[in-house]
Amino acid sequence: MSWGEVGSRWRAKLSQLDWYLCFGLIFLLLVLIGLSMAAWKLNLILHDADALPIEAVAIKGERTHTSDEEIQMALQDLMQRSLFSADVNQVQKALEALPWVYQASVRREWPAKLKVYLVEQDVVAHWNGDAWLNKLGEVFDAPQKENIGPLPRLAGPEDQSKIVLTTYRQVSELLHINGFDLEGLSLSPRHAWHGVLSSGIKLELGREDKMARIQRFINVYPTLIKQDKDVAKVDLRYDTGLAVGWVNAQKRASK
């Protein structure tokens, strides 16, 4: 076959092509390539901390125990990212890991700001010595702060914190309306209750009928203070009576 015949055949095939379709496909391919390049460049910009740095973090919410320095330290590494590559969930977790922070919510704000709303722990009691209880009866660990006022001292098994707090509130209310302040309450591993008044009097309440036994103490207390002795301990674990330990008697017994 001569070169002339080959050329003729190719010219015949080309004349049969739908050039509108071909140019349309080429145009579509170029558009797709252009969009892909634009998306690639946009992704580079969004993840470039120098191009879109986080310039500020706005902190809202009432704070008493969490300082600006603690927040800055918690977010130090995350602030090196761009506004859009920063994971708000990671920011939230970093803030909620701070000892006195109960909850944090984080959102982005254009052009270069993160807005944070913090809720601190609402502490209501000491728990088992070094830990704390919030108003929901949840245990948390946090360092001591000077601006925390006097709080009741509660103790018990770790999984009983909510029950201890609820019982404290019930017992404390009954005592308070009768002129007593409950300073501490504990639940033993055998589920026996022990209370301490602000006056130092210890109350042994046992495992049952706590409120009835507290009422019995309230009823008999006017008789106890008529004695020329200071009450150290009142054992209310009896069905109808009680046993009283006196301060002087306990001092003699300890010698």
UniProtKB/TrEMBL annotation:
<dbReference type="Pfam" id="PF03799">
    <property type="entry name" value="FtsQ_DivIB_C"/>
</dbReference>
<comment type="similarity">
    <text>Belongs to the FtsQ/DivIB family. FtsQ subfamily.</text>
</comment>
<dbReference type="GO" id="GO:0032153">
    <property type="term" value="C:cell division site"/>
</dbReference>
<dbReference type="GO" id="GO:0043093">
    <property type="term" value="P:FtsZ-dependent cytokinesis"/>
</dbReference>
<keyword id="KW-0812">Transmembrane</keyword>
<dbReference type="InterPro" id="IPR045335">
    <property type="entry name" value="FtsQ_C_sf"/>
</dbReference>
<keyword id="KW-1003">Cell membrane</keyword>
<keyword id="KW-0132">Cell division</keyword>
<comment type="function">
    <text>Essential cell division protein. May link together the upstream cell division proteins, which are predominantly cytoplasmic, with the downstream cell division proteins, which are predominantly periplasmic. May control correct divisome assembly.</text>
</comment>
<dbReference type="InterPro" id="IPR005548">
    <property type="entry name" value="Cell_div_FtsQ/DivIB_C"/>
</dbReference>
<dbReference type="GO" id="GO:0090529">
    <property type="term" value="P:cell septum assembly"/>
</dbReference>
<dbReference type="InterPro" id="IPR013685">
    <property type="entry name" value="POTRA_FtsQ_type"/>
</dbReference>
<comment type="subunit">
    <text>Part of a complex composed of FtsB, FtsL and FtsQ.</text>
</comment>
<dbReference type="InterPro" id="IPR034746">
    <property type="entry name" value="POTRA"/>
</dbReference>
<protein>
    <recommendedName>
        <fullName>Cell division protein FtsQ</fullName>
    </recommendedName>
</protein>
<dbReference type="InterPro" id="IPR026579">
    <property type="entry name" value="FtsQ"/>
</dbReference>
<dbReference type="Pfam" id="PF08478">
    <property type="entry name" value="POTRA_1"/>
</dbReference>
<dbReference type="GO" id="GO:0005886">
    <property type="term" value="C:plasma membrane"/>
</dbReference>
<feature type="transmembrane region" description="Helical">
    <location>
        <begin position="20"/>
        <end position="40"/>
    </location>
</feature>
<keyword id="KW-0997">Cell inner membrane</keyword>
<keyword id="KW-0131">Cell cycle</keyword>
<feature type="domain" description="POTRA">
    <location>
        <begin position="52"/>
        <end position="121"/>
    </location>
</feature>
<keyword id="KW-0472">Membrane</keyword>
<keyword id="KW-1133">Transmembrane helix</keyword>
